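Researcher: Structure prediction, please.
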Amino acid sequence: MCSAPLKAISRIPVCRACLEEPAPLLADYFCICCRTPFLNSYPLDDEGRCGLCRSGLSAFDGAYSFGSHDGTLRELVNLFKYGRVYTLAGPLGGYLALALPRDVRFDVIVPMPLHWRRRLSRGFNQSELLARVLSRRTGIPVGCVVRRRRATSAQAGLSGHARRANVAGAFCVKRRVSLQGLRLLLVDDVFTTGATARACAAVLKRAGAGHVSVLTVSRADRRMHAGWSKKDAAMAARAG
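Model: Predicted structure follows.
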């Protein structure tokens, strides 16, 4: 990440300083439901909810992320996801564990599914690798209970409404799976607008899940979007 020569033999081609550089996402104002950070309290109602959550568009009960999808953390996620450096699942899963709320109980960790064509071309599901690292750290079992039944077009460049329409009906719970009353933790690498997470969480809720929260390594920070280039925005959208 820093372009300095590596001085130690490791299965991870990133120096310790860069692995330790990402910092937790901090904000003075954020939505109490989806945890979206804001510059001020104007977008929030008296209960601390943003416009999307007030309108009932957030099918999940909570959303948590370790850090902002920017800088070194974004480079690490992209190296893991597109560079296929599978060994980064360990430290990135460690970030997930740090962001996991300690006062909320979960029965099953559910990795965000990939369509089979995307998984075949990429060779792996990054969310499943992260989920299994988190499972080893917490003892919560992994359940691949949902699948993506149709391929969706890239989310990059789409409006919020178009993103929601793009993933509508894209998920379904696998046959002979019972989720009645279970508390699920939906794991993914990046939270961009949350359209994909909302669509998947809604399917899990309709299948009987009693609680669904979302946990990601990073999330796109709306407070920074004004300074993003088109390339940055496209990378964030593609990663989410």
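Model: Confidence is low (pLDDT under 50) at residues 225-240.
Researcher: Thanks, that helps.
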